[in-house]
Amino acid sequence: MTISMYEASVPVFTARLKALADILSAAEQNALDRKIDPQVFLTSRLAPDMFALTRQVQIATDHAKGAPSRLAGREVPKYEDNEASFADLQARIAKTLDLLATFSAADFDGSDDKMIELKLGQREISMAGMQYLLHLAMPNFYFHVTTAYDILRHNGVPLSKAIFLGSR
């Protein structure tokens, strides 16, 4: 049995974004319970040269909307990156989940060999769709979701692997 480009992307992004929404809900509740200003969590980072929680969520959703859009030959939706609260981040995730729900498996026909062209910083790259999905988009997506989780754990939010996996 083979796995399709659709199955390797849209359902995976969807499940992980739902788990990320649960993680953020747990963090918001934890801030309330511990009487911590939510901005402490939203602006926290693991190291001075890393992005804060809010930016981690923004970048994760960028990969979740960008990869399927590129693979399906659609314009990548632009988001403003102006989220300043847990509610704003939840709305961004919900908007991304709504977008993901518009894709079908047929949208990805032939995308494994389709050339994807991107600008990364100052350089432009071109790679086949499967290489792009498996070696660039998914690793980056997981990096930013995991870093968001790690920032919150580092700040004492009682999260578990189960919530990360979406099975709690």
Automatic annotation (TrEMBL):
It holds the Pfam family DUF1993. InterPro entries: DinB/YfiT-like, DUF1993. This is DUF1993 family protein. It comes from Mesorhizobium metallidurans STM 2683. The lineage of its organism: Bacteria, Pseudomonadati, Pseudomonadota, Alphaproteobacteria, Hyphomicrobiales.
